[in-house]
Amino acid sequence: MSFKRFPGNWELKELFKKLISQDTISQAILLSGDSLSFKDGFAFEIAKALHCERGNGDSCGECRNCKLMEGIKDEDGNIIPSHPDFLKIVPEKDIIKIDIVREIAKFIRSRPMISRKKVVLIENMDRMNIEAQNAFLKILEEPHFYVHYILTTSRIDTILDTIISRVQKFYLKRVSKAEFFDFFKEFPEDILNHAFEKGAFPDSVSEEELEEEKLLSSIVSKILEIGDKRSLIELRDLFISLSRDSKGDFLRNVIFTVKRKIKEKISAPSSENLNLDDKFFEYYNKLESLETDTLLNINSNLLFTTLSDLLLNFHRNL
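Structure (tokenized):
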């Protein structure tokens, strides 16, 4: 695997290959962009290239370091690296707390074991709370020459200015649907549609996800189009059956499905829709706000009630 494993941002890929091969890459970089920029995959490839023994700016996939970085795949198809000089941080329950930053401090304290560098990858830096950000700032203020930090975010405005001033920033453009479909043309269309809308790699999409999407799409359509309260009860029962840790993801999947239905309604070539854009925009903004709330550890039962009210209001007012 290498930078070639995903589409888009070719000029930036070439720039990073040059910076890495010449050993002139900044010790702390921030990649910003939405999910369709594949910033997290891009960041992981930078980490692999930094560790690759060939040193040509891209990962070879064959040396010991590359094989350790590729590690094993879990049941969802996600790569679990086993490299002792690599630390990947992802939000736990949608937040990165100070305990995780303490793990980073402990990780960087010692020299690399088998590589020339240590690499810390922090996905969704915007989910790091203020206390943790201030602790991380202290780490950046006392750099170790053998440590590289790669941060990703879709909301750069939520990161402390003092952190922003200490990292080199790169913006990744979103990949177009045409380019995405052409690049992954060996995959079935239903998988490509789901992956593109989620900003995911097609090989990470499971049959279970597709079935869940079809079910949610059917339920949401009935609520939006005819105000079907039985479907709302069905949605509630699905929500109640989930564990506490899974409810946030479920709410985001429902919101994602509703947003897609709104986009379909706006783009429909029907004269009855021509004057609805303002209303749709208003509801879309409310959904965006609710989606943000699902990331803030707010009571999920309360958020579901708010979402249910929004769904019924869509039908009544549109």
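Strands lie at 28-32, 72-73, 79-80, 86-89, 118-122, 147-153, 168-171. The radius of gyration is 22 Å.
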